[in-house]
Amino acid sequence: xxxxxKTQPTKGCxxxxxxxxxxxxxxxxxxxxxxxTVGRTILPKSIILEDYYKxxxxxxxxxxxxxxxxxxxxxxxxxxxxxxxxxxxxxxxxKARLLDYGCGVGDFLLSxxxxxxxxxxxxxxxxxxxxxxxxxxxxxxxxxxVPASDLDVITLxxxxxxxxxxxxxxxxxxxRLAPDGILLIxxxxxxxxxxxxxxxxWAAWDVPRHLWHFNEMGIIEMAKQARFxxxxxxxxxxxxxxxxxxxxxxxxRRFGSIRAIFNGLRSIGHGLRSQEFSSQIYLFQKS
Length: 287
Fold this sequence. Notes:
It is a single chain. 34% of the residues lie in helices and 22% in strands. The chain has helices at 67-91, 107-111, 126-134, 166-176, 193-198, 216-225, 239-251, 256-274; strands at residues 17-19, 27-32, 38-42, 97-101, 118-122, 139-140, 151-157, 177-188, 212-214, 228-235, 279-286. Helix 4 links the parallel strand 7 (151-157) and strand 8. Helix 1 packs antiparallel against helix 7 and helix 7 crosses helix 8. It has eight helices and eleven strands. By secondary structure, it is of the alpha/beta class. It has one domain (28-286): Rossmann fold (3-Layer(aba) Sandwich). Strands 6-5-4-7-8-11-10 form a seven-stranded mixed sheet. A four-stranded antiparallel sheet has the order 1-2-3-9. The longest helix is centred in the first third of the chain and has 25 residues, at 67-91.
């Protein structure tokens, strides 16, 4: 799919409160900047954020997925891995040094085996990191632990929104990238059709695990502050099916799975017209 080009600005969903439908049912506030391009989840001082990841259903930290949602996750994941690898091949050299930040149990890194890339990962969650290590992958708990050397590409597949200080992280990525190095960031898009349709039930709010919420303008402006140049935006269209499936689950409606498929198609169709997809990849280059 070619680089997305906006035909006109879109007005997305901007809730000031969102519920953790996934685990705790708690309600969290979201504070938006004046232009509504970046939102920040407000955490109570007493919260222990790690506790909100402790669930066998949290897919990115689990190796074996069970049930309908697990199967849907795995199917979308495999298809999107192909999409991501195609994008990598367009932008980085054959023997590139790649860092996958927030690699979970290492499935994406594992999918790159057999290619000419030199791959490492970072995963702060200890259980997920141990599973990735058990697969023979080179995975660290923090960027500071990675041996000093220039990297050609850093990827964050739905990871940046989990970080307490995304701007500080991007500045660190900038310092570790080689000249003309590439930063790939995948994020949910609050300007998408499904965000507007499901509103507070949209699964990609995912509070409090998602500490930040960006539309395209928001992430581009933040990346500029870290001295990155925006080169392209690409769609991850199939993410809509999994997000919609979870959203229907949270709404507890009859025929939710059928609705999710239908709404996934509607979301993709709207994305083709508006260039606002459920999830998008933002490609930045070191200036």
